[in-house]
Amino acid sequence: MKNKFMTFIKQNGFLLFLFICVCAVAAGTIFISTQELREARNVKDEDLVILEEVSSIDKAQISEETSKESIMEEKEEEKPINEVAKGDEEAGEEEMPEEAEETLAEETINENIEFIDDYEEDEDDTDYVTDTSVGFMPVEGEIITDFSNDKLIYSPTLDEWRHHAGIDIRAAVGTKVIAPLSGTVKEVREDDLWGITIVIDHGNGLETRFSNLGTMEMVKPGITVNAGDYISTVGETAKIEMKTEPHLHFEVLKNGKNIDPRSITK
User: Could you tell me if 89 and 164 lie in one domain?
Assistant: First the structure.
């Protein structure tokens, strides 16, 4: 057996050696290829880990930078408010309670409403008469001396013929005199000739004048009177008509010119 093996080795030794070399080379090639493949896999895993780490780091950095930018923007937005609050604190101003703010707002609205009402009343005061045919006679009684614009009337007191700027209405001394139209008292005076005299401004250039009155205590200049309000009483104070029986001397002026008082009364 041994001889056969030795004979086989001698005859096929070269082929066997070649076969062993080929196997060794193949084994070495396989080993090297396997080693390189393992190393390649390790490299890929390491690269993948590194990429994941880099990605995580980048995300963290981006998130941190975004947070910082957000914080900076919020600080910049809050800065003016803080500065205003700081300025208010330095000025000693305290925040007003909600109830106080509501009360202040209501008072402001009321003041505005009152101002508007006053303004409207003032406008009405300057424009009382739109129709000059709605007035009342200031006293009830007979007209004993007519209005004369284009003719002369005899005056028993002066014993002469002259113009008469108004009308004389018979009335007992003490009879109350009323305002024929609404208006504002313009004058309350005691005239040397016409005695106690009251003048009322009714707007639109219309005025009424009352003379030979008994009192000047019932009205004052500047007050507002309505049609029918008492303004005085009939007296005996007009020296220029002292010989005429008790009466009220009543005149009406339109734009400074005397007109017949009956033109504005019912």
Answer: no
Handedness of CA 216, 218, 224, 229 (dihedral sign): negative
Distance CA 206, CA 181 (A): 10
| Residues 82 and 150 occupy one common structural domain | no
Domain residue limits at 213:
143-264
b/e map 71-81, b = 16+ CB within 10 Å: eeeeeeeeeee
Report if residue 159 sits inside a domain: yes
- Six-digit token string for 178: 């009323």
* Structural domain ending residue among the three candidates 37, 69, 95: 95
Distance between CA atoms of residues 8 and 242, nearest Å: 187
- Of 134, 166, 126, give the one whose Cα is nearest residue 148: 166
**Amino acid identity at 85:** A
- For the stretch 117-145, pLDDT in tens is 343 334 444 344 434 445 889 999 999 99
- Identity of residue 247: H
- Biggest CA pair distance of the chain: 200
Q: How confident is the model at residue 74 (pLDDT cuts 50, 70, 90)?
A: low
Query: Which residues touch 230 (CB under 8 Å, ≥6 apart)?
Result: 176, 177, 178, 218
**Does 50 reside within a domain?**
yes
Same domain, 151 and 71: no
pTM of the model: 0.51
Non-local CB neighbours of 245 within 8 Å, separated by 6+ positions: 144, 170
Q: Domain holding 149: CATH number?
A: 2.70.70.10
